[in-house]
Amino acid sequence: MSRTPLYAGLAVVIAGLPLVCNAYWTDVCVMIGLYALLSLSLNVMLGQAGIFNMGHAAFFAVGAYATAILNTLCHWPIFLTMLPAGAAAGIFAMAVARPIIHLRGDYLLIVTIGIVEIVRIALINDVFGLTGGANGIFGISRPVFFGFRIVKGIQFYYLVWGMVGVSMLLFYGLWRSRFGRALNYIKEDDVAAEGCGVNVTGYKLAAFTLGAAWAGMAGTVYAAKMLTIAPESFNFMESVILFAVVILSGGSQVGVLLSVFLFIGLPELLREFSDARMLIFGLAMMVMMIWRPQGLFPPLARRYAMPPPEEGARP
Amino acid sequence: MSLLELTDVTKVFGGLVAVNDLSFSVDEGSVVGLIGPNGAGKTTVFNCITGNYAPERGGIRFAGRDITGLAPHRIVELGIARTFQSIRLFGRLPVVENVLAGRHCRMKAGLFACMLHTPGQRREEREAVARSLEELAFVGLTGQAEAMAQALSYGNQRLLEIARALASDPRLLILDEPAGGMNDQETAALVELIRAIRARGITILLIEHDMRLVMQVCEKLVVLEHGTLIAEGEPAALRENPAVIEAYLGADDDRW
Predict the structure, then answer these.
(1) Domain-by-domain residue ranges, chain A?
(2) B89: contact with A, CB 8 A cutoff
(3) In 3D, which of A129, A137, A128 has the Cα closest to residue A61?
């Protein structure tokens, strides 16, 4: 069973969608794309390695603020700030994760909640006099791509979804390699993984840093789209939503896309029921836990080129 | 020449001395059995050698190098592979990926090579898969590569653990009750497998309660009781040793 047709169909739909959408819905789709980017990056650690990070918004924030500061104070063009933003988020993640990465499951989850709260409060308190306190930073400029200024919703749409596509290809490569397998071994049984020669702490830390750096680069796009960023955009609830998206997805990338749409797109479609939104969410989560605890689309098994069976070989 | 050498190794859990001043050595190319009654501290000794536990006192040398207190994955890299007493496979992953787990530490592709699937990474991956299939064939699991590990029978899961350990190119293979849960036929096949592993030049240290197997494959036995060495030597000689007989009092003599 292959998912190639599913991906091809999704690509066509995503590429054609803004041609039939109005400006409002294009903007909604930009937000869905941003969440997709963040969820894909969280999937590397949470979905693949089972690292319970409920503070992903913290790394998103570090990236967005790095871009905002470099752009408004140092007048760097937006795309030039993307690498430093990713690096800042990655280095921050490595520094905070090093002492806690050995924690398991819910213990790690609680600490990461602490991290996202500390980051938000630090931003409100205007650390180093750079973050602008509770008002945040405004006056971020538009990104320029080889002389082409990205202003309109539809332009951001293709920027964000292009990044989603590239990320999916790279993460697919990662999944189909010794790195991806190592993360799966750790998720299955970390003692056995270590006993087989997998550097468990090293790989957990690498997955955490990589996911955080990716979230940081998503932060760059977010800052450029919003023009203004404030600490309240990176609160605990954002982290919970990202966490729920990945858990619901089952750990595959197509699952993440579907799950992001359910979490971010569906509430927009069902505006009139907005009062009952949390109720429906809660109910849906309970139903999932009972009937499909493995998530919507668990990853298929990796395929390997097997030599043809020899004549007369024992089965 | 001894490949593995334990000197005065002591491991304490709270007030319980699980291993007490234990010294023994394993010669390169030999098959050594670590035996003793339940709770004698055999698995604790294994866990000290493989780095899962750090001993409180004493030293462990492997191939002339002090490995006391190293992380388990470093010890695998140095050439000691193990199987677990309670099977610890990656049950929801295919059989071939379980063997590839053992191969992991001999592969070099880094993060970016993995993301981009560089030519070097692809070649390494092909070689690793081929090698894993060879190890599966070696233990007799040909044709099962794409099954989920948890779908294998109990005896085959034990064989898969051995294949996984062999894939890491070990010089010393540590087997923790390899015949546990196997029927007579499977145990007989295991004896042949252990001999074949030895013929590859791999040294073996094993814990086993099946005395017929121990007597057939081991050329040296180390007997533990309450964490203390009570005897060591050739199996035939130990059979007559009064301390060993006492430790095993109640065990059926026929089994020897």
Answers:
(1) 30-235
(2) yes
(3) A137
Output DSSP code: residue A128: G
Do the Cβ atoms of B101 and A179 come within 8 Å?
no
pLDDT digit string (tens) for B51-83? 999 999 999 999 999 999 999 999 999 999 999
Whether residue A89 contacts residue A216, with contact meaning beta carbons closer than 8 Å, is answered with: yes
Cα–Cα distance list, B159 to A224, A296, B181, B182 (Å): 56, 34, 12, 10
- B243 and A CB contact within 8 Å: no
Does A314 contact chain B (CB < 8 Å)?
yes
Chain B residue numbers with beta carbons less than 8 Å from the beta carbon of A177 are: 109, 113-115, 117, 121, 125
- Which of A178, A313, A314 comes nearest B107 by C-beta? A178
Give the angle subtended at the CA of A267 by the CAs of A266 and A273, to the nearest 5°: 120
Reported ipTM: 0.92
What is the total residue count of chain B? 256
Q: Using one digit for the tens of pLDDT, what is the confidence trace for A49-103?
A: 999 999 999 999 999 999 999 999 999 999 999 999 999 999 999 999 999 999 9
Give the global pTM. Answer: 0.92
Where residue B250 falls (left for φ over 0; alpha for ψ -120 to 50; beta otherwise) is: left
Nearest Cβ partner for B142 among A176, A180, A313: A313
